[in-house]
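yo, Bifunctional uridylyltransferase/uridylyl-removing enzyme is done. seq:
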Amino acid sequence: MTDTRRRRRTDHPFKELFDIDVLREELTALARQVLDNGKAGREIELRGQMARRLKLAYQQGHKTAERWLMEEGSGRRCAERLSRLQDEIIALVHELAVKFLYPSDNPSTAERMAIVAVGGYGRGLMAPGSDTDILFLLPYKQTAWGESVAEAILYVLWDMGLKVGHATRSVDECIRQARADMTIRTALLEARLLLGEKSLFEELTVRFDKEVVQGTAVEFVAAKLAEREDRLKRAGQSRYVVEPNVKDGKGGLRDLHTLFWIAKYVYRVHETRDLVAKGVFTPEEAVVFRRCEDFLWSVRCHLHFLAGKAEERLSFDLQREMAERLGYTAHPGLKDVERFMKHYFLVAKDVGDLTAIVSAALEERHDKPVPRLNRVIARLRRSPRRALKESTDFIVDNDRINVADASAFGRDPVNLIRIFHLAGKHGLAFHPDAMRLATRSLKLIDQRVRENPEANKLFLEILCSRETPEIVLRRMNETGVLGRFIPEFGRVVAMMQFNMYHSYTVDEHLIRAIGVLGQIERGDRPDLGLANELVQQIKNRTLLYVAVFLHDIAKGRPEDHSIAGARVARKLCPRFGLSPVDTDTVAWLIEQHLTMSTIAQSRDLSDRKTIENFASVVQNLERMKLLLILTTADIRAVGPGVWNNWKSQLLRTLYYETEPVITGGFSESNRNQRVARAQAEFRAAMADWPPEEIEAYLSRHYQTYWLQTDREQQAEHARFIRAAEAEGRALATTAHTDAARGVTELTVFAPDHPKLLAVIAGACASAGAHIVDAQISTTTDGRALDTISLTRAFEQDSDELRRTERIAAAIQKSLAGEIRLPEIVAKRIPKRPRAFTVEPEVTLNNSWSNRHTVVEVSGLDRPGLLYGLTQTLSRLNLNIASAHIATFGERAVDVFYVTDLMGAKIIGAARHSAIRRALLQVLDADDEANAA
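structure:
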């Protein structure tokens, strides 16, 4: 690209696309042609023809802007060009309106108007799908001429398909409403004159500054920060959610806009670089602001172009193509999309740092309240500056820890760890100046500091604190100290995992897991089950905290992260001061951190072989206690709705089934005692039932049911079955919604037979319902009690429940032979491109059970998958003794315990190969359909 061409784009971004003078002449000729026979009744026709021609130019402009964005990569320049294009369109429409439709040769004083861009459009930056916010500014009240011109402009813009926000106000009205409404005040803060009476616009800006802005900085800052808090509650408080909102999410463009609004209002600046002269930013920080802004504008513009609309959420199905557009490539252990998203989260972190810097400057001016460590914004009593007795290098300044002077970290680099230790110990918030200095001092953390015994002792105390380890670790991470002190952690900072299972980046997940572990230890979360009891029994809490902190430390490497993580632990634990025995335990916990969850959710816990195999892995009771607590913290920290009572009960059952095997106790006796205890609790819960009815009901369930079903669900099942039998229903269903998990649970009570699960799965698929979990039970009198968890499809519970009624009707009709599910399912399941690929796997194993062949199927989840798998197993003449259905984001892991028709295991390599091929065809079917 020549320098001449680059300069021409900057001066007039769309000159190459169309000559504005040529377009003006074309539209002028069009206007004269339409109005040649007089204006009466021809205005609408002219507006329509103008809109069609301008829409074509507008679309061509967007295509050129997208092409130049792909070539140059500058998101801010793209946003400037799109804004400039909008300016030219509005100016041209206005010119034609006042020349041909509503000319005023000798306008009165009242017939003056300024057209002003406000809000985001006022900044001169627009994404492809941005709204166009316009103010028609008048000197006094509206006139017929002004109303006609404004309507003509708006109708043309609307007919072009643009989203236009507009207001018509006098200067007095603008000032009055800006005083009363913070949204209007913010919009006028960025007002920009497009065309019309310059003196009118200048009057507005002078009066706005004098009558609205002056003396109201504290009010404006408080309102903007409160508005930000509300926005983040809606978009998600963490900046590390894996499908971030580019505009409104934490660390997104709106945060940058809020910073600039506050800076412009408080410091009366017009450009970010002006904040350097005010002492708010250093020149380097101003560069960071501009770099973050350009990157986020690039992402947002690409996002709108890709989606063809104003899409702000960077969803999984768009992330991969975004990575390709932006030129990211895969590295060993990291996909191209994961590298792109890591860059995104690092930028979001930089935005957070800039927010802290501006906040510090505002606090120095007393324009912002001082936060505590827990970040609740509230005006607090400001305590005087005082020294900390533990170190003369730090002081307490307004309830926040700060450095005594700028050389505190240079004198002793261990202070970069010590400041966080003291903050956690005394419950102090962090002074932004100290955090800013810490970030600038990261190079002081070298190998000598990393190996310093005191530094490691202080870090271990931070990690294992009984107070606020999660908050302190997060601040260490945000400043960069944590990743610098532990380089292995630095590798996973801002690293996303391109899957639907994890809601947060790896570093955020690890820090949240420490927070969950603290909740378990304090007993804050009764729903975390057995972990609450076991945590009080463990011998060494330190190694548990270390294991939780390191369990995913090796994500993003080419090899299995559990094995690699154990190797990292063997390197780090001695540095932290752990003994060789404790180091071995931590390494084992990390290597096995997925084992207990996998077995609990995908194996038959009533099968003796399952328990024996698990016991051979854990070997001793202390390790099993630690593993259960780690597993609980890990699952709970994955994201909202992942942990539930069913998983809690499965872990409890696995633990208690394995305990006597490890300790050498009598397993059956132990099991009988636990069953008796569970049944006693059931009797207490159903005290309103006659004793003889309770006893009869207890005998209908196998022992496994009482051990694997939580008490509340047992009572619900009992009342459901009682009501169904009182009504004489052979097939009965009930449903309820679970907002926390985002699912609807459908429970089916019906006569058991080999194809029942396939029928239920087919009925769900025929209704477009997606199965994510299933609890399969059988009673002693030959009835099936199956609970199926379906992804929620509707906002309203009533709509969800109507869907389950349709599913129940389909089950009934299928069992009665009134409908054929295969044909219905084939028509119902949508074929659509997917963001994810999962390598399909089918494993058959005869050593995991003494009585059954275990078939484990893993692949990309999709509607109708379970139906296809169960249908195939039935067609292969296999009896399904039990099924264990689990979904981990986009990955389905379904395990079936099967026998042949004679009740024997499946023997023979050829038979195994045939089963594997048939199931792989089911997993691959959707890929083939999409390829076609």
